[in-house]
Design a protein that fits this description.
single chain, alpha+beta, MutS, DNA mismatch repair protein, domain I, DNA polymerase, domain 1, Dna Ligase, domain 1, five-stranded mixed beta sheet, 13 strands, about 40% helix, globular, binds magnesium ion
Length: about 450
């Protein structure tokens, strides 16, 4: 039997994204009205205006000279699309750590599946609610990239998006049993995809709000608008539950982000906590048939300062003993010289590889075998190019990989991979790849 958990879909959307990027790139613009001009010379129409500029009535589509007239002290910024794309990519990298499933929708907007979080994340008392979790995500984007984002959480992509609009700027959660109430007075025109034509047809039926739609007989909606009408009727009645459908993303990272129940002054205790988290994550690695190439650790202290480090293994690892030994060393190194209590610990396994348990021919210890194999592979690949050498398992997986890299789109959205390619010119898998060696932040 298929269990039907109510879906929890999070929509995250950058606030006045291009204008916010300009402020993020130039701190001297902070607090000032800023708008970004389109056209080749950046003096055509306004393509984004921040909140300060909007107070002067500046809006998207207005001519730049008009904007300057109503707000002489405002700043016109010429668009820097490469920088926007870079910031967008970094924003999605952060979002990726918060969900097993991320669907980018545009340069500053995406859906995150949080359906299983009830059971796996905020069941623990350390992350008590969805709101804490989402606000932590928003805070990180704000702190690390200086970009404000809003978010909405609901049972479908439609609901999540409407929640974001209601939230801007901020976060709104619509619990499953409050949907009808949340929608009742809202105009159907707020729903993306309604369009002028459908809006007029709905108005002709007397349906201006979702509440009006809910009161119509479902058969009328179905006859007039087909499947879409049926869906809209269910939605308006708070009965539309929709899983976030998309191609399954190959996992490239496993992470954990935990605020300790109280600020921990005892570093030995904090280490024990980190090790137990890491052991749990190693279990997940094993279950998913993966191993990790990189381990990252970030510790946030009481005063919200952070210290972070990353370790790159010579060979992908999946063993407790190896990973936890490195973690312990990393932790000691990181905490040296610190005295503040620990507030939060973030752990990441990045650059995940499929677990390959082929027997090996060289060396007596595992490390020697892997080392010898890796050296030999690199030598061969150096001579003949990559993909020359395949282990048995890799060979067997080759066909499967081809299938996986060309999945049939299962959703009406632009598939995540294509979207990533379009937005950032690279593959979604590459989003979470980091640089090698130990690096301190
Ligand atoms: Mg936006």
């Amino acid at each position: 039997m298929v269990s039907r958990l109510p879906s929890r879909i999070l929509h995250v959307d950058g606030d006045t994204f291009f204008a916010s990027c300009e402020v993020a790139l130039d701190a001297s613009l902070s607090g000032r009205p800023v708008w970004v001009g389109g056209g080749r010379r950046g003096d055509g129409i306004v393509i984004a205006a921040n909140r300060e500029a909007k107070r002067f009535g500046i809006h998207t589509g207005m001519a730049c000279f008009e904007a300057k007239r109503v707000c002489p002290n405002g700043v016109l910024a010429k668009p820097q699309y490469d920088e926007y794309r870079r910031l967008s990519k970094e924003m999605f990298q952060i979002m990726e750590a918060y969900t097993p499933t991320l669907v980018p929708m545009s340069i500053d907007e995406g859906f995150l599946d949080l359906t299983s979080m009830d059971r796996h994340v905020w069941r623990d008392t350390t992350v008590p609610t969805a709101a804490d979790y989402v606000n932590d995500l928003r805070d990180r984007i704000q702190t690390e990239l200086r970009l404000p984002v809003s978010a909405g959480l609901g049972r479908s992509t439609w609901m999540a998006k409407l929640a974001t609009s209601a939230a801007k700027p901020g976060f709104v959660e619509v619990p499953p049993d409050c949907e009808q109430e949340f929608l009742a007075e809202r105009s159907v025109s707020e729903l993306a995809g309604v369009g002028k034509r459908r809006e007029r047809s709905l108005a002709a039926l007397g349906a201006l709000t979702f509440g009006d739609v809910a009161r119509l007989p479902s058969t009328v909606m179905q006859q007039r608008f087909g499947i879409w009408g049926q869906q809209l009727w269910l939605f308006a009645n708070g009965r539309w539950n929709e899983p976030l459908l998309l191609e399954v993303k190959d996992r490239t990272t496993i992470s954990s982000n935990t605020t300790l129940p109280y600020d921990e002054p005892d570093y030995a205790a904090a280490l024990v906590f980190a090790l137990s988290e890491s052991t749990r994550m190693i279990g997940q690695l094993r279950r998913e048939g993966l191993q990790t190439r990189e381990l990252s650790l970030t510790v946030r202290f009481t005063d919200f300062t952070e210290s972070g480090a990353m370790y790159r293994f010579d060979h992908p690892q999946f063993r407790n003993s190896v990973i936890n030994t490195v973690l312990e060393g990393l932790f000691d190194e990181l905490m040296a010289g610190h005295a503040q209590p620990v507030r939060q610990i973030r752990l990441g396994f990045n650059n995940l590889k499929p677990l390959d348990t082929q027997p090996t021919l060289w060396g007596t210890t595992d490390a020697e075998r892997w080392g010898a194999l890796d050296a030999a592979m690199q030598q061969l690949e150096g001579q003949w190019g990559s993909d020359t050498v395949l282990t048995g398992a890799q060979y067997a997986l080759r066909h499967q990989n081809v299938t996986h890299s060309n999945p049939k789109p299962k959703c009406p959205f632009v598939p995540a991979r294509e979207m990533a390619q379009k937005l950032w010119g690279e593959k979604l898998e590459q989003l979470s790849q980091h640089h090698g060696g130990i690096s301190k932040r």
